[in-house]
Amino acid sequence: MSTAASATNSTLLRAFALLEEILAEERGITAAELCQRLDVPKPTIHRLIGQLEQEGLLQKEPDGRYLAPGPRLRRMALGVLAHRSVGAARRAVLQRLADELGETCNLTLLDGHELVYFERVETNWPVRIQLHPGSRMPLHCTASGKLFLAMMPVHQRKALLSTLSLVAHTENTITDRGQLEQELDKIAAQALSTDNEELIEGMVALAVPIYDDVGQVRAAVAVHAPTIRKPLASLTEWAPALRRAALQLEKVLDL
């Protein structure tokens, strides 16, 4: 192998190693920490960060200190999850859950400052809320969105919240940051989140986290229903079923 080819391979391996470290740290990671973990000189780390940032593979968090997956890397991750090798098994878990609960069930993901409805199984009720796969929703007024915010490291949550516009979608939408912080603390303590008609009037939802093998939240499984069939007061009865489905999805997604 030529010297040039060897140098290229070395750079690629370092870039992959850097991205792996960033993906492994839910709280985010700094350039200084990457230098220590990878035993790579500081100028090299900063050069790699600049190149990967330019390509959209990583980005700086709002505080400017921590690094996080960039939009291009997040799209690649969504593509992996959408691959048919895991799609059928993933959908089968959601189908069983929807059959058990009798309401629409979703696999949701965090993408930057938005929630993505990645996969869903509808029911046949004449009255149901239709949100198509790929739909993007705000974080502050959805069960899954609040769950993702709640389960983040505190510094990451505060940085992300500072960038969000807490727009009111219904009378129940939480638009006060202090009140939302209190709500998120409660959600984090239970690892369980609800949407009390905060996004759509007449719709309630429940969400639980899906963890990876080191205990970081990578996705969520959620169910939503019209209040005429399932009032909020009884919604948490479905929590055990959602947690069972979350465990099954962890295995299917090999997180």
From TrEMBL:
UniProt cross-references to InterPro entries, sorted A to Z: ArsR-like_HTH, GAF-like_dom_sf, HTH_MetabolicPath_Reg, Tscrpt_reg_IclR_C, Tscrpt_reg_IclR_N, WH-like_DNA-bd_sf, WH_DNA-bd_sf
Entry superkingdom: Bacteria
IclR-ED domain location: 72-255
Biological-process GO terms, alphabetical: negative regulation of DNA-templated transcription
Alphabetical list of CDD domains matching this protein: HTH_ARSR
Ranges for domain HTH iclR-type: 9-71
Molecular function terms from GO: DNA binding; DNA-binding transcription factor activity
Keywords assigned: DNA-binding, Transcription, Transcription regulation
Coiled-coil residue spans: none
SUPFAM superfamilies on file: GAF domain-like (SSF55781), Winged helix' DNA-binding domain (SSF46785)
Alphabetical list of PANTHER family matching this protein: HELIX-TURN-HELIX TRANSCRIPTIONAL REGULATOR, ICLR FAMILY, HTH-TYPE TRANSCRIPTIONAL REPRESSOR ALLR
Pfam families with a match to the protein in the record: HTH_IclR, IclR_C
This protein's name: HTH-type transcriptional repressor AllR
